[in-house]
Amino acid sequence: MAEPVSAPKGTYDILPDDQPLRRWVVSQAEAVFQRYGYGRIDTPTFEETRLFSRGVGESTDIVRKEMYTFEDLGGRSMTLRPEGTAPVARAYIEHGMHTLPQPVKLYYHSPMFRYESPQSGRYRQHHQLGIEAFGSAAPEVDAEVIGVLAALYRELGLKELDLRLNSMGCRECRPGYSAALREFLAKNTEAFCGECRERAQLNPMRTFDCKVPACREALETAPRLTDHLCPACAAHHARLQECLAVQDISFVPDHTLVRGMDYYTRTTFEFQSPLLGAQSGVGGGGRYDDLVETIGGPATPGVGFGTGVERIILALARGGGTPPGPRHPVVYLVALTDEARREAFSLAHQCRSLGVAAELDYMSRSAKGQMKQAGRSKARYAFILGEQELADHVVTVRDLVSGIERSLPGQEAVSLAAAQSADL
RNA sequence: GUGAACGUAGCUCAGACGGUAGAGCACUGGGUUGUGGCCCCAGCGGUCGCGGGUUCAAGUCCCGUCGUUCACCCCA
């Protein structure tokens, strides 16, 4: 035998039994998004590399070490989409959506690719559901975006989620804060780990991510961005909190919530689940008022979120979600002779043409074996065809729930199944 | 990229001290000359991740490698 090939590291197959739950999650999400007025957009699976290096930011981990980048045959540098916001912003610009009535509200469901070391809830290819609202700087839009995600989680039955909320300020107030924080870090440099000292240079706010207890303790006394917000950012943040209250959404302020993309301004948020272990983030996002301009479009504010399908499914599985059952056939055809097999194939076709899910044996199983399959398939009826039935031009219809059998002409049997099928 | 644990049948897992591979489930057939879900019997199914080493002998010990899992990092 040739050497078997397996799925690439960090990827996995989504088998038939996995599909119903996934499709349910996605369809619930689409229903919520549409109810809030978001329209679906699909962007390419790969983009020019510079979209991400510019949009997401050169200093981010994503750009520095996690992108699937390749050169195409024309010598252009391309990258498999690592996140959803930059591509949608690109499409917004490319299609002149700034000429539409604002805000322009879009949603997506797309695979994302990041070259990371896989672990529980983290893959090299994963799927995100996300929304983006472009063109309005109103805090009400931030609140709506968070409200959409909260509504989705509620309708999926996700329990025990914590919402963390922060403000990153804007280009008016962040530089002053960064300077203050940098000064603090420089003054206390011996209190921090090597990595934090590095981060202090690149992007001082990233030090808040550090899990080293000593660093955390040292950061307790660090200046907080929420205390340095300019009046406009402070007013925005205050109004957002009012709008969350209106929607009955509670949150915990977390001034250390610094997300992995450089484009965030003002609002950042993240829903976390204690059920997920180390990868506790189920979904999050924020405002990115400079992103569109950064990648070459007209100055346009925006807010959005991304939420991981795999993480939702994991949290659902661990928190007792509601997995919808798979679809069963209505009819299983049992054929006992070669001639009966021909008739069974024909009846299966008739059933299926009428929208009735029908299954039959292709493995030459014994009568008992076929009945066993019929039972296993959870079909409502077994249509049994043998010498006797063919001679009498009937099929034996066995109700697999009650065990009651009766003889019916083929057409009537099919009609019976069609009626049953309509009730489902 | 770093650290730890694990890798035996399709799946879940046994295999003290190295001695020539087992169970349950699943699958197929039979018990019922043409009838499921329970039960009984039988059968099918394994290069013990891969490569090297130690040994008379390696699933078992050693080294390497790949993969999985968990954690760090970061994120969905």
Summarize, please.
Helix content is 38%, strand content 20%.
CATH C-level class of the largest domain is Alpha Beta
Total number of strands: 16
Biggest pleated sheet: 8 strands, mixed
Helical segment tally? 15
Identify the strand order in the major beta sheet. Answer: 1-5-6-11-10-9-7-8
The count of domains is 2
Distance between the termini: 46 Å
Strand content: 15-25%
Report low-confidence residues grouped into runs of 5 or more.
none
Kindly identify the CATH topology of the largest domain.
Answer: BirA Bifunctional Protein, domain 2
CATH superfamily of the largest domain: Bira Bifunctional Protein, Domain 2
Structural class: alpha+beta
Task: Give the overall form.
Answer: elongated
The percentage helix is 25-40%
Structural overview:
The chain folds into 2 domains: 16-173 and 229-318, Bira Bifunctional Protein, Domain 2 (BirA Bifunctional Protein, domain 2); 331-423, Rossmann fold. 38% of the residues lie in helices and 20% in strands. It has helices at residues 19-35, 49-55, 61-65, 85-94, 139-156, 174-187, 194-202, 213-219, 231-246, 291-294, 309-318, 338-353, 367-376, 387-392, 410-423; strands spanning 39-40, 46-48, 69-71, 77-80, 104-113, 125-134, 162-167, 252-253, 265-272, 281-287, 302-308, 331-335, 358-360, 381-385, 395-399, 405-408. The strands form 3 sheets. Strands 1-5-6-11-10-9-7-8 form an 8-stranded mixed sheet, sandwiched between helices. It has a 5-stranded mixed sheet with strand order 13-12-14-15-16, sandwiched between helices. Strand 9 and strand 10 form a beta hairpin. The mean pLDDT is 91. The protein binds one RNA strand of 76 nucleotides through helix 3, strand 6, strand 10, strand 11 and helix 11.
